[in-house]
Queue: 3 jobs
Job 1
Amino acid sequence: MKVDSIVNGIVLDHITAGKVMEVYDALKLDKLDCSVAILKNVSSNKMGKKDILKIDNDFDIDLDVLGYIDHNITVSYIKDGKTAEKKHLALPERIINVEKCKNPRCITSVERGLDQEFYLANREKQIYRCIYCDTKVTK
């Protein structure tokens, strides 16, 4: 299979196999008016299998959301057919409005419009906790 290279845009590489649609939805790529190539289960020497997203448009990507979904993703910004910048992600220290607190007694369940904010409590186990009630969210 051959997928053309892009001239100006973004390539999300090293997405864990099977997570490409979660990334697609989180970035709201269906709202873009450009070509988006979704490659699933691509052979990889490092990972065995991986997913790739190619976006034929340059736009602001929330790197914290990407890092939360899969911190192994690499983000390559393409300018004039060449990689202009490459970023390696990490788990973000805080996530805002990415997850919802599961605690029915949390203030975020009662107060409309209050941000759903979580902090990284344990990096190795990828555990986040609500800043209001300390309820645990595991990715």
Job 2
Amino acid sequence: MSTAQAGAPTRATDAGTATGAVATTPAGGMRAVGLDIGGTKTHGVVVGDDGTVLAQVRRSTEPGAEGVVATAARVFEDLGRATGSPLTCSVGVGVPGLVDVERGMLRHAVNLGVNGDDLPLRDLLAARLGVPVVVENDVNAAALAARALVAADDVVYLSVGTGLAAGLVIDGRLRRGEHGAAGEIGHLPIDPAGAACGCGQFGCLETVASGRALAKAWPTVDGPPAAALFAAAADGDPGAVAVRDRFCWGVACAVRALGLTIDPECIVLGGGVAEVGEPLRVEVVRQLRALGEGSAFLASLGLADRLSMVPQHYPVAAVGAALVAAG
């Protein structure tokens, strides 16, 4: 399934900017607000009753607990100005790290400068914003939006961003796991002699197939490393081709592992690196087919045919957060 085949039930009205510019679409029928809080940016959306994205805002994320809350409050206020009226609907928040959904607690969100003890993020945000708040892991939230994109009940969303992780929707329900670690595919070791991973293991998938790994293998000061790498590979640079192929092999290995353990109906690629678009899907499909050349069993699973991508510039994590809030 290609990106075009996936379809999108929502329509982004504007890409927004990192400095806080907003879209200004009429806000009738507001359903929920979604905030995707990342280590570098916080992306907020207002989603209507029909799934349409009515407004978007991006702002740089301030680190630390107070910085995260303050940034979220500014994005929320900007969204209210964009829609022309105060926002009174529920807010869903997607954040990296381990999330206790029942208690609204966040811990080990290193990229946000939140370490150690539980942070009562839900309660802090609810007090600051004055509306009900639900907190969820960002990749899990994105998986809900990915499920809506492909209209299936068994969906894996594979986020290829700074790190590598998956959100699992099984029989229409999120699978978080006993410790909230379900889908941490990036920390599956594939090479015991490989590079050290931030998790303390060696040779994890994330050391091969992540934005961090790609930037290390193909450093550039001219735009996003993934875009630069794929452009150089398309121009025939043999070094770029080698780096691209190893990276896409790693992503294909992640898809294979998810296919063999979850066997989902659809696997959807997203995350910052996926902004490369169709060239990434094509190369991952090629690697998947190569993995199946020596195994009739693996080839029979048709993993390449189950693979699609989030449409470029679609705010999947923020929309997913809004779906979390809407229930």
Job 3
Amino acid sequence: MFVDMPLPQLREYLPDRAEPADFDGFWDRTLAEARDHDLVPVFASVPSEVSTADVYDVTFAGFGGHPIKGWLLVPRHVAGPVPCVVEYQGYGGGRGLPIDWLLWPSVGYAVFVMDSRGQGAGGWRRGDTADPFPGTGPQTPGVMTSGIHDPDAYYYRRLYTDAVRAVEAARSHPRVSAVAVAGASQGGAIALAVSALAPGLACALIDVPFMCHIRHATEITGEHPYAELAAYCRAFKDQVEHVFGTLAYFDGVNFAARASTPALFSAGLQDGITPPSTVFAAYNHYAGEKDIRVYPYNGHEGGESAHTMEKIVRARKSLG
């Protein structure tokens, strides 16, 4: 069933943003601190059954200089540097195996797959990157409330910083030219944040993004992962305003208002995990060139293969 506002209302939905006064300073400081650590990207060629792409096991320095894993796949039979799509993971997923990432090389692009620190044990795609950050305090299962007592300690500060550094690592490879970012759900949230934090991207492919209009999301859906926030607030009733004060530094609507990267969004009108009004809140605030594909009878899976074709077409426009 449809789970949110009618589509005409969604297209006009432009809620007020709860934005910390030091939002820009917070992220400028965060990225400057990360860049105090040398990026030191390592691209180790690995044997693979993939015959159409050269495969590299990647390690680079993310937030705090912590080692972050990834994969780089470059089309084997394309001469010279090629455009690259940096791909981010959905909630609970990790980088998986190289065989999982053949789409972009099959259409002539490299793909740089960033592992998500501390995730990848959710049963669907394994991860290989620890999150060594200490002192995060009480939290619900999952990462949504990890460090939520302090924006500096919050999990997504580390993850979004890793994601910007992943773009920098991809750009450092001699076989990579222009760079785009892409992801769905949590990966869409990351791509949205990076579209504002990393200059010079060719485009952003942002599917059913999570972490947008967050407080509203907790009020209209009981689905996970937003349910983690509700559970935390049930336990810590005196901290509700503080919780959402922290989350304002990581809300996609605030990144959207700063983004200049050309973007293609997608939304499913039967999506109870990232309800469409949360997606449209970010889309309607998005400051850069933008378009959106809406799938009325789809949920969190979005447009599936039909939308994959839309993304390829959009990538061709931006990446060549």
